[in-house]
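Minutes, project check-in

Agenda point 3 was the complex the collaborators sent over. CS summarized: two entities, 1382 residues total, and the question is how they sit relative to each other. Sequences were read into the notes so everyone works from the same version.
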Amino acid sequence: MSTPTNTENRGSAVDVTDAAGARAEAKPEANRPATLPGTPDPSAVEDLAAVLDGNYADIKNGLRLFLNDPDLLPPVEGTLDELRAYNLGLVEKVAQAGRIQDSFSPLNGGKGQVAAGVSSLELLAQVNNSLCIKSGVQFGLWGGAVDALGTERHVEFARGAMDLSMLGCFAMTEIGHGSNVQHIETTATYDPETQEFIINSPNPGSKKAYIGNAARDGRWAAVFAQLHTPDSDESKGVHCFVVRIREDDGSPVEGVTTSDHGHKGGLLGVDNGMLEFDHVRVPRERLLNRFADVAEDGTYYSPIESPNRRFFTMLATLVRGRLGVGASAAGATRAGLAIAVKYANIRRQFEAETIGQESRLIDYRVHRRRLLIPLARSYALAAFQNQLLDRFQAQTNAISAGDWDQTNPTKEQDRASRETESLAAIFKSTASTHANRTLQECREACGGAGYMTENLLTTFRSDVDVFTTFEGDDTILRQLVGKNLLTAYSWDVAELSPFGMAKFVAGNIGDILTRRSGIAASVQSLQDRVTGTGSLFDAETQLRIVQTREEQVLNSLVRRVQVARKMERSEAAKVIDRSQDHLLEAAISYGDRMMVQAMLNAENSLPEGSSARQVYEQVRHLFVLDTIVRNADWYLDHNVLSGGRVKAAKAAINDLVDSLGPWSEVLVDAFKIPEVVLERPMMVNGGTDRS
Amino acid sequence: MSTPTNTENRGSAVDVTDAAGARAEAKPEANRPATLPGTPDPSAVEDLAAVLDGNYADIKNGLRLFLNDPDLLPPVEGTLDELRAYNLGLVEKVAQAGRIQDSFSPLNGGKGQVAAGVSSLELLAQVNNSLCIKSGVQFGLWGGAVDALGTERHVEFARGAMDLSMLGCFAMTEIGHGSNVQHIETTATYDPETQEFIINSPNPGSKKAYIGNAARDGRWAAVFAQLHTPDSDESKGVHCFVVRIREDDGSPVEGVTTSDHGHKGGLLGVDNGMLEFDHVRVPRERLLNRFADVAEDGTYYSPIESPNRRFFTMLATLVRGRLGVGASAAGATRAGLAIAVKYANIRRQFEAETIGQESRLIDYRVHRRRLLIPLARSYALAAFQNQLLDRFQAQTNAISAGDWDQTNPTKEQDRASRETESLAAIFKSTASTHANRTLQECREACGGAGYMTENLLTTFRSDVDVFTTFEGDDTILRQLVGKNLLTAYSWDVAELSPFGMAKFVAGNIGDILTRRSGIAASVQSLQDRVTGTGSLFDAETQLRIVQTREEQVLNSLVRRVQVARKMERSEAAKVIDRSQDHLLEAAISYGDRMMVQAMLNAENSLPEGSSARQVYEQVRHLFVLDTIVRNADWYLDHNVLSGGRVKAAKAAINDLVDSLGPWSEVLVDAFKIPEVVLERPMMVNGGTDRS
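CS then shared the predicted structure for the full assembly.
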């Protein structure tokens, strides 16, 4: 039974034996990086921190001082009400620290500094994710909705969100419509007689659900609802209204039923609940009217004609939320990695062959692999995040400077904003998936000690669990990205049926396949910088390999979808449904390419010849080669890489974790995680104290 | 930039375009299974349940009645002390139900029915994992140690464990030695004058840690310690002693310090703590003396001469524990899958193209993939578990019948018990990894509702988290399996240095590569049953494909290791360390083969031509093809499968989830999860209720 069953196509790759180590027999790669010195250079920490912080070092360093406070850590125990009350107190500390509010627009007294919000969430997530998310709800979602969708009329609400005098909710999701926002059922019907909107939940499925701040603390809510005006039975689409949900003293408001989701799988300091409206009347001015308004007589007006485009323009406020969630996931992951890597550098287990005492965990290659490979991905995500934030900030600046009219953007702006939406979606889904996997790996890598709540890893893990769901389910977001790629960011396709989409794709193949760009314009210069020897360690080659996959996957998806144009509607729908896994693959490979590009961009900022640059380069190799090996079957199957090269990539991953092992603490020190987070009990009594 | 960078070896596989669906262009496979009827046959449930329950249907059905009790569910909230007290009350219910004690040997009043213990844990894990684990600690670990290592002398302790009059701990792990049991530091020094053992923790690293029942409820402990007798300074190795740790009223015992680990990442009903001994004296008779004894004058005696073999014979009691943990992980996973699959069959989201209402989640292929692929693996694990239990029960029976002398086994018995150890290790590690991944997938597949504690998924998930660590860290267990494979189950190698191991491997290649067998003897008949057309859907071909990988991975590992025999000791150690990932791969591919074999064996028990058999067959296809696709790069790289065949396997997975979709509820109904577990709030108010 030792013979393979299949012999077709055996002539191709010589099946080299790997008995004496794969490297010896695989074709040697040019430009193999030298093994790093066994004694790390601690000065590399600051250089690496600089590249990780990107253009946001000042903001972050300011926050870090505030965050190094043991009171900010999540309490280990308590009743739900105690945990929530404590967490609210921490949000007050954040408000007093006064940086997160810089994300609001100048109109509302902020600085229009998106990064202040995103970086605050990222760093809060390194300490306490209940605090991070409750702050995100208050400042980013409730305050952010008012800031992004409101006008002069609503300054009082934005300021109330900023100074916590108005605690609020972001009431979009409905229990019957988790991901399908366009079809929520809450209604806002205009009554010209009283000049009020009547907010109503017509059926149980339309209850607002999983809403942060709704169960206990919220007094206000930004409520998304279908707008109806007297001129027509049809909805004008989803709009957002400011609605009081409790009196300031916490007593109920007539017509609003709040309820409590109670205990959740994590984020115990956040009070999620439901909201139900029974013909609640709010003044006409409570419509957040930046993109649409209703006149006193009930006349509807919007500078954006297409309802579809209007909807997506309003939803663009979600982009900032997704940036925040992705950054938080990334922050929590870095904190977990720092804990696990530091533990691996002190914890000893099993007698070593030569050193006369037990080896440290980091001395085992399997352990290096399980921590350093995800760590490399965290570096890649950090670069991606920074450049995405740069891009988003530039767009925000253009909007406030009046160079970019959201109600009437240029074609390029239009496309750019859709692309930013895609980038934020793939960033958020990549970061949250990575967070869950990595924090679990960190927990397991710390064994029984990792399971003790005092060591923080399980709390991080259960808190970030739901990051894969809220602010857009990861699978749905990847589909969104796939569809954006497939439709070349055309607005018109958003509402198309599968059949219509197939027709569109067939008619626009050229556009689709050429319209791919990067996070930032600077990427184009990359080719000038690198001389391509074709080695797996060449930057240009790495990018080409990853890009080839991205292109071919999209290509194959396009061809798969366009055949549907000749089918009946129901058959066409089936073809589209059956392309779902390809759609996801297209999105993921797009994200992979973005991260490789981002790392290459970031690397340029490190001094040539510095040890930080050498280390960063090896981290980049590790990330890229792991990305390639994850998809090895695709590369082999599509003949982009030979078996020998895949083997070489696998061997190189082992060499790289060996080389980076002694530098592992340097790599996590560069994350600049607040000390209080790293001072875990297992670091002192983890069995190494044999006094 | 659209050309691939690497063109070597491009001549091989024709790079077929997959535009019009991969299947059309990949070589069509023979014997493709027909799509199942769109309306499932509910009668298949009982047939499938029969194959899932194997020879243990009676035991399980008895337990199921007991388990369908809402009081057994994990409480949603409470202080640690409340949760622990409540859980202890539930353990009393389990004791009163009286089935779990059948696992004890007849000497102690049991029936020697291993399955009664393992199945109890498996089913408890479907309802409440804190209850499962606390029961496991009491009956399986504390009681099990006394039962397996003790003699007539210790009947009172075994009975005390069985009727809960003696709550106890299994005190093996030390804070400084999580996985390295052979080098624990607690000492038991014999004092001939008083005929007592002095139990002592010589340093902080020797504290017993993470011990269940230690923080609150335990009164006794089975303590593992290095045995010292007056004749020599050297330890006689690790032995087990019964030690009182608290008075019956809970007050402290002199010399024993107990402490509390407090809040953990899950299993909140289990009171884990530490134990420290300060020269605690216990009578000579408290040594569990089945495999070794100390005479009154201090003379040491054991029927097993080799200290190494003695150690591993005693550790063989861990095998039952690993079976229990694996079964529990598998049980919790099935419960999670049942919840998520049932939710997917009622929950609607997004408008469907044709049916005039929103589609159910199960109607989306991506959703079918995320649930049905792990579900198929759960079916495979169930088959593996049953047959492993059959094997273990047969060995237990042979031992009690006197046909198998543990102190002096035949060569075949010796090898068989090592193999059982390997099988239990790979079963436990596979099941616990699968549990964590799948329960997370289930949570995400239920969106926000899945994150609410009332819907049980997050509690299952955080409870099983540590299953990957306790009773043997999964990575260490996989290494153990790899080493067993590499040393052809030779006892002598257990203590060899890496250098010695390399020499051994070099001298025993023949043995290593031929000595591979299955779970049960019946497997050999498989080849008679199947005519091999070479199709991916042929049972024989499937087995051959998986087996080919297992053999070649082991082969390559052997050659990699044996080169080290000519090296210096420290160089040899490096080679072994660098083979760690191959060692893990060898273990995993061994486990994969076992599961394929187990499914094929199990399938035989289903009536030919029945719809259950048709369905089971497709589940087996799904499991096998997924296992192949997971390792697609290896198969391609080693030319075992062509690109076309891998494509065909991928396309077949999609076809299979489409075919099995309408049967998904049948598949989980066959798990026979207690109704109280499935009656989750999200099943009634998940947005489908639009009244």
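Noted in discussion: Chain B touches chain A through 129 residues (CB under 8 Å).
Follow-up: revisit at the next meeting once the mutant set is ready.
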